[in-house]
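seq:
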Amino acid sequence: MDLDVFVTTHRAEWERLDHLLGRGRRLTGAESDELVALYQRTATHLSLIQSSAPDPVITARLTQLVARARAVVTGTRRASWRDAVRFLTEGFPAAVYRSRHWWVPTAVLSTLLAAVIGWWIGTHPEIQAAIAAPDQLRELTRPGGQYETYYSSHPAASFAAQVWTNNARAAALCLVLGAFLCVPVLWILFLNMANLGIGIGLMSSAGRLDTFLGLVLPHGLLELTAVFVAAGTGLRLGWTVIDPGPMTRRAALAQQGRAAIGMAIGLALVLFVSGVIEGFVTPSGLPTWARITIGIVAELAFLTYVYVLGGRAARAGDTGDIDASDRSAEVPTAD
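struct:
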């Protein structure tokens, strides 16, 4: 394509579009129709130049022009409480539901890994000796030891806030680092499961596994589920880099990335609930059965939320992505 000839041919259309966008008064009906037609043609011109004769100056000018025109054509919309309600009742649970084929296997395999590590440490004294000295191990596992006092070492409110921050950071890392071909997500999962397995192994070797589970399960069920959802979503995002499916890699990553951002917001709320349980319920004086029951109820409530509300929204076509009107324009690609 001869760029000079192309620019000369279409310059008047671009200038006319720029003129319409710069009008200070409301456009007439005919002018509005003309603006829409010029916007569509200019977007096509931009695509042709990018694919056939890329020129940074012309591309930058047309990109700005198309962006301005799109803002006028589609209009702007402010977020409202209705958007927040829709996100919590449809968008977020639908995104979690649609990614269940990633996070459910992740949860099962990770739990098995933690159990295997716990069994290995609990049945091999030499491995325990490599972790810490005997006196340190006794201090960790004795009644009133560090494993028990950890959950009451700080005021409940500040401890809950600290736990929430740490867990939200881990979930966000899983979501963000998933784009790096899944490897960082697998490493984060391994570290979390190794820490859990060490606790299981050391406390079981001291004959106090029931105490350990009574401390971990009230908040851990919901907390680990949120981490597994984040990890599964991160793995899905990483796999999109490898295999984008029928979409272009850029479009597929954009779609999965937008859903992952929404997932991060939703999981932060889930982890907030888990942090509250860990800060106020886990170290409380409630009997073990009551604390575990609270954890099970919270977990079942989340799963019901995902599979009932999320399943219904997903079957209705909700993908967890933002509305089409709020997405960036996708410039047509020339064949």
